[in-house]
Amino acid sequence: GLQSPRRLVSGGDRMMQLFVGVCSVVTSVTFLHVTTSHCFHTSSSFTNKQDFYEVLGVSRTASQKDIKKAYYQLAKKYHPDTNPDDPEAKEKFAKLAEAYEVLSDEVKRKQYDTYGAAGFDPSRAGAGQQQYYRAGTSIDPEELFRKIFGEFTGGRGFGDIHNVFEQRPEFVMELTFSEAAKGASKELSVNIDDVCPRCDGKGSEPGTKVSHCHYCNGTGMESINTGPFMMRTSCRRCGGKGSIIITPCALCRGSGQTKKRQTVTVPVPAGVEHGQTVRMSVGTKEILITFRVQRSPVFRRNGVDIHSDILISIAQAILGGTATAQGLYETISIVIPPSCQADQVIRLHGKGIRRMNSYSYGDHYVHIKIRVPKKLTRRQRSLLLSYAEEETDVQGTVNGVSPSAGKKHHGKGRKDIR
C-alpha cells in the first residue's frame, strides 16, 4: 500500500530528504530543498569542476593561516547580506565553505591533493574502495562564517557580525591635480563609531557581569521547527551575542560604541583618478572616501599619461632651438627640432603619472604651439617682407609685397604668389 512519508537523516548531513514509495516498488525519489535567508545547498557538480584552491584564490602550498584569511575575505565579499540582489552570491558563499572545510583539515587536504575532488565522489566508488569524505559540505556555511568571524574579530560575539554588512559612511575629499598625480597625506574629520572607552566595547557597566543566554545556551543561534524541517537563525533573546547585559554601560547604554569626532590622516596613493573610491579602517568600522580631483591649468590627463602645451616663436619653429616646459615633477628643457610644425608632439618618456601599485610611470606629451607676434618693429617687418619675396611655397598672397618682381611696398600693395 501507500507508505507514509518519513524523514531520512544521513549521518553528517543536515538536509532533510523526503521520498515516497509506491506499492513495494520505489519508482522515483524526490528531494525537497527548503531555504531560508541563510540556508544553502551545495552540489557535487561544483566539486568535480572547480579546484578548491582556485575557489579560495590560494596556491597549493598556502599555509593554514593564508587559507583562513582568504576564506574570510571572500566570504565577506559574497555573503548574501552583502549581495541581496545577486542570486549567485549564495551559491558562491556555499562553495567557499565547501572549499574551506576540506583545505582547513590537514587529513582531508592531503587526500584531496592526492585524489582530487572526483576521487572522493561516493557515486564513483566501486566495491572495496574507501570513501574518505562526501562531495558537498557537511557544515552550515553561515555557521562556519560566524565561527571564523569571531576569530578575526576577537570573539566580540555573533551580534557584531551585522556590522560587517552595514552601509559604510561615505566622504568626499578634494584633491589638486598634483596631489592626485603624485600622492599626498590629507587630513579628514569624520564622525565615527568607536569602541566605548568606559566598557571597552563590552556594553556592560565596568565591574558588572553579563548573563549567559540560556535561550540559545550561549551559541547566539536558535533552532526553529517548521514542520519536518529545522531552521537556524540569530537568537531573538540576545540578538546573536550569546549573552545578556544585566547592567548596561552608563556611557554607551549597552551598545559598546560611542560617537567620536576624529581627524584621520588619509594616505592618498599616487595616481588616483577623479571619482575613485578607497576604503579605510577607522575605529571599528570602514569608511569610503571618494576623491574629487580639480582640473589643472597646465596639464591634461589620459590614464597615467599627461599632456601640456608649449609656445615657441616663429624663429624657433623654423630654425629649431630649446624651450622650457613645466613638468609634473620638475622644469624640463625641451629640444625643438628645426622645421617644427604647429601641433607637433614631443614625447617625454617616464615623465607622466606613476601607475598605482607599481614603480613604472606614464609619459608626458608636449604639444607645440607657434606664437605669432601681434606687433612688429620696422626691422622685423622689413625682414619678413624680404623673406616673403623669396618664399615660393605659398598659396595665396602676402600683404605688403608688390606683384612686380623684386619690389617691396610698405603700403597696401601685395604680391600674388603662384
From TrEMBL:
* Subcellular location per the Swiss-Prot or TrEMBL entry: Cytoplasm, Cytosol; Mitochondrion matrix; Postsynaptic cell membrane
Write down the Pfam families for this protein, in alphabetical order.
Answer: DnaJ, DnaJ_C, DnaJ_CXXCXGXG
Sample GO molecular function, one term: protein kinase binding
Listed A to Z, the keywords are: Acetylation, Apoptosis, Cell membrane, Chaperone, Cytoplasm, Membrane, Metal-binding, Methylation, Mitochondrion, Phosphoprotein, Postsynaptic cell membrane, Repeat, Synapse, Transit peptide, Zinc, Zinc-finger
- Cited CDD domains: DnaJ, DnaJ_C, DnaJ_zf
Domain of life, per the record?
Eukaryota
What are the residue ranges of zinc fingers typed CR-type? 183-261
Position of the signal peptide: none
Report if keyword Zinc-finger is assigned: yes
Q: How does it sit in the membrane?
A: Peripheral membrane protein
Where mainly located?
cytoplasm
Give the GO biological process terms. apoptotic process; immune system process; mitochondrion organization; negative regulation of apoptotic process; neuromuscular junction development; protein folding; regulation of cell population proliferation; regulation of immune system process
**Stretch list, region Disordered:** 396-418
GO cellular component: a single term: cytosol
The J domain sits at 51-116
Where does the CR-type domain lie? Answer: 183-261
Q: Where is the composition biased (Basic residues)?
A: 406-418
Q: Please name the InterPro entries in this protein's record.
A: Apopto_cytoskel_mod (IPR051938), DnaJ (IPR012724), DnaJ_C (IPR002939), DnaJ_domain (IPR001623), DnaJ_domain_CS (IPR018253), HSP40/DnaJ_pept-bd (IPR008971), HSP_DnaJ_Cys-rich_dom (IPR001305), HSP_DnaJ_Cys-rich_dom_sf (IPR036410)
Whether Nucleotide-binding counts among this entry's keywords is no
> Known HAMAP family for this protein?
DnaJ
Q: State the function annotated in the UniProt record.
A: Modulates apoptotic signal transduction or effector structures within the mitochondrial matrix. Affect cytochrome C release from the mitochondria and caspase 3 activation, but not caspase 8 activation. Isoform 1 increases apoptosis triggered by both TNF and the DNA-damaging agent mytomycin C; in sharp contrast, isoform 2 suppresses apoptosis. Can modulate IFN-gamma-mediated transcriptional activity. Isoform 2 may play a role in neuromuscular junction development as an effector of the MUSK signaling pathway.
Record's PANTHER family? DNAJ HOMOLOG SUBFAMILY A MEMBER 3, MITOCHONDRIAL
Record text on subunit structure and interactions: Interacts with JAK2, HSPA9B and IFN-gammaR2 chain. Interacts with Ras GTPase-activating protein 1 (RASA1). Isoform 2 interacts with MUSK (via the cytoplasmic domain).
Q: What is this protein called?
A: DnaJ homolog subfamily A member 3, mitochondrial
Q: Which organism is it from?
A: Lates calcarifer
Q: Which gene encodes it?
A: DNAJA3
